[in-house]
Specification:
Blueprint: H1 5-14, E1 46-47, H2 54-62, H3 67-78, H4 82-98, H5 101-109, H6 114-129, H7 134-140, H8 142-151, H9 157-168, H10 173-186, H11 191-203, H12 209-222, H13 232-242, H14 251-265, H15 276-288, H16 292-302, E2 305-306, H17 308-311, H18 318-332, H19 347-350
Parallel strand pairs: 1-2
Helix pairs in contact: 2-3, 3-4, 4-6, 6-7, 6-8, 6-9, 8-9, 9-10, 9-11, 11-12, 11-13, 12-13, 13-14, 13-15, 14-15, 15-16, 16-18
């Protein structure tokens, strides 16, 4: 059950240094290390691989060119692709933390561009977040978030950044609620804003895991079937499990969250970058619940696309930890085991309905 998850991940975290590196040499016969049926070899697994749209922008940024990144973000804004815009903003900001020249050149050339203003706001929050003086530094970057929000009024991503900023600065529930209402007016089913709110509930003084699940369940039930919000309850389960609070909510709710996310994951093609983070988080939850065949099913869908989160919460080598956990899951599954996806509206999933709210 849930109580056994911490020792499992602790064992994996202690042994990450011995796991194969993604660029390690192949075996003598030219193949990679064996991983299990339906799984790529260890040396074929990539960490945080960009999709076909983001990849060229990152390559260009590495050469100091911002035009592809500008075109990418402008396209997401024009098409109201808010989930893509949010994810690309995060990835481009992470790149800019190490290589910022292209972003500075972009801002110098187009200081009113909504997309460069958005990136500058995200980067400022990211840089402040890891500092011991986080709250003070975050207060100093408020004007950047305001500028990004004003530059593109329909865009919910500046409001997601504002919600993260408020949590880091220790804002009270009244102010956070005002930001939340503004975010909802722009995109009522935006996953990033909901994750920010869920994190606030999980960490603020008035929050509880039951409230987190109530919030996540309501959001998923109100959202379209193809919305990323279908995976939000599993994010609440992840918060419980990573904080050692797996007994703080009924087991039924943890399993129902996993069931809903399994059904959502099945909507996407296997071995593709876009749903990879959802599937990596779901795998963590399924391992914590000791649902080994279901975890193996997600690992097969993940294919070569490992993501840093959530594994980087347990190890400074998230890829090695992912590979170690993957090996453990394979070892716990009988040969030929095939998971059968559950319908989140039936059995366990049905108990996550309105009666739980």
């Amino acid at each position: 059950m849930v109580d056994t998850m911490a020792p499992l991940f602790n064992r994996a975290a202690r042994t990450t240094r011995s796991a194969p590196h993604p660029h390690s040499a192949p075996l003598a016969d030219g193949s990679g290390p064996p991983a299990g049926p339906g799984l790529p070899a260890d040396d074929e697994v990539l960490l945080d691989a960009p999709d076909d749209r983001l990849g060229p922008a990152l390559v260009a940024a590495a050469h100091g060119e911002y035009a592809p990144a500008a075109a990418l973000l402008a396209g997401t804004r024009a098409r109201a692709e808010w989930e893509y815009r949010d994810r690309y903003t995060g990835r481009l900001s992470a790149f800019a933390r190490a290589r910022v020249e292209w972003l500075e050149r972009w801002y110098a050339d187009a200081p009113r561009d909504p997309d460069v203003l958005l990136l500058r706001a995200q980067l400022a929050v990211d840089r402040a977040w890891d500092s011991p003086a986080r709250a003070e530094l975050l207060r100093e970057v408020s004007s950047l978030i305001t500028a990004a929000a004003r530059a593109a009024d329909r865009d919910p991503v500046p409001w997601r950044i504002a919600l993260d900023h408020a949590r880091g600065a220790g804002a009270g529930p009244k102010y956070f609620g005002e930001l939340w209402e503004a975010a909802l007016r722009r995109a009522p089913h935006h996953y990033g804003c909901h994750v920010a709110a869920l994190r606030y509930l999980a960490t603020s003084w008035q929050g509880s895991y039951a409230e987190c699940f109530d919030f996540a369940d309501r959001a998923a039930q109100d959202a379209p079937a193809d919305s990323l919000l279908q995976a939000l309850p599993s994010r609440a389960a992840l918060a419980c499990l990573t904080r050692g609070a797996g007994t703080a909510v009924p087991q039924e709710r943890l399993h129902a969250a996993a069931d809903r996310a399994i059904a959502f994951s099945a909507r996407f093609p296997a071995a593709t970058p876009w749903p990879a983070e959802i599937r990596n988080k779901l795998t963590y939850v399924l391992v914590g619940l000791e649902r080994w065949p279901d975890a193996l099913g997600q690992l097969r869908l993940i294919g070569p696309y490992a993501t840093s989160f959530p594994w980087d919460h347990l190890s400074d080598d998230p890829l090695a930890l992912f590979l170690k956990v993957r090996s453990d899951v394979v070892g716990r599954c009988p040969a030929g085991s095939v998971p059968v996806p559950r319908d989140p509206r039936s059995e366990r999933g049905g108990r996550a309905g309105s009666g739980d709210h």
